[in-house]
Amino acid sequence: MIRQNLKAVVLFIFALQALGAQPAPRFEPFDWVLYTRTGPLLSFSEGFEIVYIATGRGGVYRWHSLRKQFLEPVTTAQGLMSNTCQAVYYDQASGILWVVTPGYLEYSYDAEGTWIHRSFEEMGLSPNIQIDRMGSSKNYLWLFAGSRVLKMDRVGGNYLGQTSGPDEPLISMSSGSRYNFDVPEKLREYSVTDGWLFNGNDLIDIDGRTEHITTIYFGKYNDQYLGTDRGTLLIGDGTLESFQPIHTGLLNSGVGDLLLGREILLGGSNTGDPSGLTWFNPAQGTYDYLESELEINLPSLNISRMIQGGQDVWVGGNDIVVYNLKDEFWKSITKPVQGGRITGMCYAGGYLWMSTDFELMKIDTSRNQIISFNVLPRNLNTPVYGIASDGEKVFVVSDVNFYSINPGTNELRDERIYRQLGLKPGAIRYEAIQSRGSQLLLATTQGIYYRKNPISEWKLIINPTLYGAQKVRTLDWDDNLGILNLGNHLVLFTMDGLIARDYSFDFIGKINCTYIDHDDVWLGTTKGLIQFNWKNERLK
After folding, report:
1. β-sheet with 140-145: strand ranges across
2. How far apart are CA 522 and CA 251, in angstroms?
3. Mean pLDDT of 377-391
4. In terms of C-beta density within 10 A (0-12 exposed, 13-18 middle, 19 or more buried), how is residue 148 classed?
5. Taking 60 as the threshold, does the pLDDT of residue 7 lie above it?
6. Contact at 8 Å (CB) between 495 and 461?
7. Is the pTM for the entire model greater than 0.90?
8. Which stretch of DSSP H or E encloses residue 12?
9. In angstroms, rounded to a whole number, what is the distance separating the alpha carbons of residues 431 and 485?
10. Phi–psi pair at 186, nearest 5 degrees
């Protein structure tokens, strides 16, 4: 009956209230997905198969209780006002998912996209009110703010008044932040896997660090859920009387670079978060961390570039380290990074090449040793934006300079294409370069150029007017689709010169790296890892 009533009022409510949906109506709710650092876990609520988790920094995480894995999180990419969530509640009778973010009560009829926002200030409430948990009775939604209880319309979220407690029996309720009650004695008698221990009302992880329990929820399938201040989810089995700790979200809130594979290796870019890397498996929804605090020879890094060669992963930022995947150990290359960051990495001629803002390094990977620094001209006064290799040479772009380097002899050659274009020296500037095998894609102020192989000429495929002649920071392509990173937005294009779309959304942040993997575009940004499934887009 409630579902039928909802259908009757949905259109009326939609006409009256501002809707906050996924980036555009043409997108499905999870065509854009943002993964980031969750911060503390603050509230649990259970649906039919999904447990919803309000996090302090990562939106609403969704745990599938039957498949035992995380699904895509609900964040600002789906239309939430903020990724800071105070409480979450799923009303099983109506199918509405309610979320409290700073200053707002938000809800969705499909528990995914098309979010409706109700401002506390517009309701006559303080925008700074802190909601601890939520619940529902037969006719109302109840918001608990310390000793105060807010009575709300269960369908439209209208504020109906304030009481000292619900005047109807509660049907169900979410968990809230733990601040005035102890962990039940029975739960503290449970064992914890992976070397964890209970320490009174808190937990000690395998590395001896204390994690404070922030919220507790008892599920309907004899499961218990604990959340911690470090973002760990612990799932308790009532039959086995044990808890299993599970990482949620990324180690860092920003991503400087990533390596694609069955699992994605993400390099953190934001200072203030724990330094290190995240292993993320999108298919299984699992996260694991390599933390500088715990890994020997892994210094604190603001990671900007990574590359894999065999069993070695080279990681560059304000320092250079190499990780052996087989033996799982780190080795630091003790050489200060000139300019403060690595701008590019590529393999050529049996060597690994790394560019910084003002130099190019040649590394013997068999000895993990830098063997050459002074490859570029000494009078190079512009930053190196990036490097790439076509299998024969190393190509370097640096503002008005475009060089190729023989990897065996370090011989430098001027590759500037102003003559081919009939321009004067300096009239064309070089911004970014990317390679795929022997193919090269070059971004310049005169447009995007493509070269099929070493004996081919450069061909203009994108006119700069089609992307506003904005500076291209990174680029990538896969088969017939390409992507341009323009800083805080991106452009998809086809290799025949047809611009597909320009995407500019607040949840993206500043883009650090771009990769295309079949139907998915992956972005490492200051807001986190973004997955864009573009297969439903019409390339017009």
Report:
1. 159-163, 148-153, 140-145, 133-136, 172-173
2. 18
3. 85
4. middle
5. no
6. yes
7. yes
8. helix 2-16
9. 11
10. -60, -40
